[in-house]
Predict the 3D structure of the following.
Amino acid sequence: MDAAACFYCGAPRPGLWGFGPLASRLIGRLDFARAVTIVCVAAYVASILLDPRAAAQFRSPFDLLSPGFGALVTLGMTGEAAWRAGWWWTLLTAIYLHGSLLHLVFNLMWVRQLAPAVEQLFGTARLVVIFTAGGVAGFVLSNVASGTWTVGASGAIFGLLGAMVAYGRSRGGTFGMAVFRQYGQWAVLMFILGFLMAGVNNWGHAGGFVGGYLTALAVGHGERRSERGVDRVAALATVGLTVVAFALALWNGFLR
């Protein structure tokens, strides 16, 4: 487990001092799209229960069952004001919060559509890292460029699109170009639609796409190399950091 290199492929520290096999067992059992769905739905229900009166206010079908502003801030909404307060964890927690029922359903539909495709080409561990990196990068650009309060998984979703585009360009050939065109067209269409709809965080979309694209290039896809222990440890660390982020958000919102 602690060999300096794999006896077969030469990979350095294949056991990662005992953490590699553990990460492999945990990440190998993960259905990431389902996990994202569960966390998003749970966070949405919590945001409604924190302020039922705000959720009951009907303004338009697009705002149906919208959580209150205070509830979202309590659970980890991000923005320039959150940065100024030192709430770094909101870059992670805000990925799983949503501003209305339609917002939640629309984003989860895209997660269910894109996550399996990215998982097939990159593997489960790298999917976790790409999704999270896309979401964080989207919020970083949004906070710098606009500073407005924001929530939602759309930056992470654009990160998945960016990863598929990166794969298509990297692989090349007939299949690679087909992937590049299909997912590139989806990204362009969704980005254009963002400018036609009110309240859409286009800075977050752009940052998410770039973040997912660059992360995909950095971690590589399955046809270049199979997933290693280091990928699974990185994914496990990403999940752990997200759990810590939610713990900090709840502590800051309720116990501080």
The longest helix spans residues 229-255.
